[in-house]
Amino acid sequence: MKQLSLITDFNECYDVLQNKISNQPFAKLIANNQIFLKFTLLLWLGISMGCYPFEIINRHIVFMLYWMMLGVLSSIGLGTGLQTGVLFVFPEIISRFNENKNNYLLDQGKIVRFNTNATNLSNDEIYSLIYQTYFECIWFVIVWGVGTALGELPPYLLALTVDMKDKKATGKLFDMLGDNRERVKGYIDNTVYYLKRYSFFTILGLSAWPNAFFDMCGVASGLVRLPMLDFLIPTILGKAFIKNTIQLGVILYSYGFYGDSIMSRNEMSYLYMTWMILVISFTLYFIKGAVENVVNSD
Question: Is residue 40 part of a domain?
Answer without folding.
Answer: no
